[in-house]
Amino acid sequence: MSCGEPHETDCSEVLDHLYEFLDSEMPDVDRDKFKQHFTECSPCLEKYGLEEAVKKLVKRCCGHDDVPSDLRSKVLGRLDLIRSGQTVPDHDVTAAPQES
């Protein structure tokens, strides 16, 4: 996705890190670059608006459900694998090995 115009921050970078922006999990200097990009690029602004709306809807509909105690550690473990560039297995890597 791109509006076809050159930007200081490339559209692919913005879209790759959109959830970090939405979750305020990036340095302020990067947030400022993204905000500037959204003022210049309507396709990215539209994608941002859509993802923000979905996030709000999920929070409203599912924000009160109890989360299983081990879910957070499983999710964080998978994120660590992804960030390190390792292949993420399809099976639960935190489960005890099954006996044959």
TrEMBL record:
<protein>
    <submittedName>
        <fullName>Mycothiol system anti-sigma-R factor</fullName>
    </submittedName>
</protein>
<feature type="domain" description="Putative zinc-finger">
    <location>
        <begin position="11"/>
        <end position="44"/>
    </location>
</feature>
<dbReference type="Pfam" id="PF13490">
    <property type="entry name" value="zf-HC2"/>
</dbReference>
<dbReference type="InterPro" id="IPR024020">
    <property type="entry name" value="Anit_sigma_mycothiol_RsrA"/>
</dbReference>
<dbReference type="InterPro" id="IPR027383">
    <property type="entry name" value="Znf_put"/>
</dbReference>
